[in-house]
Predict the structure.
Amino acid sequence: MRPNTRVKEPIIPCNPPKYFCHRAVGKLEKLDGDITKPFWQTGEWIDDFHDIEGDTLPRPSKYTKVKLLWDEEALYIAAYLEDDQIWANVKNRDEVIFVDNDFEVFLAPQDSSHRYYEYEMNAANVVWDLLMDKPQRDPVHRIMSWDIHGLETAVKIDGELNNPSADNKGWGIEIKMPWFSLRECKEYQVYPDHFAPDLGETWRLDFSRVEWDVYVEDNQYKKVLDPETGRPLPEHNWLWAPTGVIDAHMPEMWGYLIFTEKGEEYPIPAVDEVKWILRKLYYREHAYSVKEGKFTEDVKLLMGDEGDKYNLKAYVTPCMFEGIAEFEGHNWHIRHDGLVWQED
C-alpha cells in the first residue's frame, strides 16, 4: 500500500457558514459586470472572507463580496473584488487560471465529498470550468473538457486592466449557470420534470479569491519573488468557508447553500453530524497509515469515545478501509477515498 500523504485533518473546527439563497425577482437581461443594477437588489451579500487556514492567520487585506440568486432557469452569482492592482495574463478558456489573481466558485449538489464543480475566472473574463470526480487529495479524475453549457459571464473593471498607472479600484463579476448543466452531479430521475432545486434543498458551496503579491516595473505587474528560491511568493487564498488546510478542495468544510423563496431559514440536515464523525475517521486512518504503513480497525485508538454514539466500526484490507456508523436506523459508510453514502 502507498500511504496517501495528501489527506490532512483541518486545524479548525468544522463550522460551515450558511447562505439562504433568494429566488430572483425579474430577469437578468444583460450581463455586463454591473452589480448595481436592480436585479441584484434582492438577497444578502457575503462579505466575510478568511484566510484558507482560518482566523489564526490575518484576515484578507482586500475586500470581497458575493451574492447568489436563483430561478427556474439558472443560478446567478455577482461578486466585487476590491483591488488597486488589476491584471490578467491567461487568455484562453480552460487554461490554469489561478496563476493570475482570480475568483473561484466550488459547488457540490450532493454532500458525498465526490462529484462537484470548480469554476474560476480572471479579470479578463477568461474562465476555467471543470468537473471534479473526487477531491485532489484522493486519486482524482479531473474532467477538464467538461463545460457549463449555456454559461454566461461578464466583468466590469473599475480602472483599467494591466495598467498600473490607472486609478484602479476593483472589478465586478456577473455569472449565469443554467441548471441544465449543473444537473450532472445531482441525482435526478431519468426524465426530471425540472432541473432547478426545490425549496429548502441544500448544496455545499465555497468561494475563493487568489491574490498574488506583485510589484510594478516598466509599467507592468510582476510577481514578487522569493530571494532564496527565485520563485514567486506563495499566493494568498481567501475563502468564505475556510478549510483549515491549504487546500480549497475540502467539500465537507464548505458552506451550506440553501435555496429559498425570500430567505426563509431551513435546518441543516441532522445526518451531517454522523458524516463529520466518519470524515474524522477518514483523516485519522490516513494519518495512521502514513505512520504505520497500514490502516487499522482499532476505532478507539483513532477516535477515543467519539464514535460510541454511532456504533462506529472500521474494516480494513491491506490497501483500503471502510468505516460504518449508525444513524436513525440507517448505516452510513465512508471509504478510503472519502466517499460518503447511505446504505440502501
User: Anything to note?
Assistant: The helical segments are 179-182, 272-292, 299-303. The chain has a mean pLDDT of 94. The CA atoms of residues 47 and 58 lie 16 Å apart. The two ends are 30 Å apart (CA to CA).
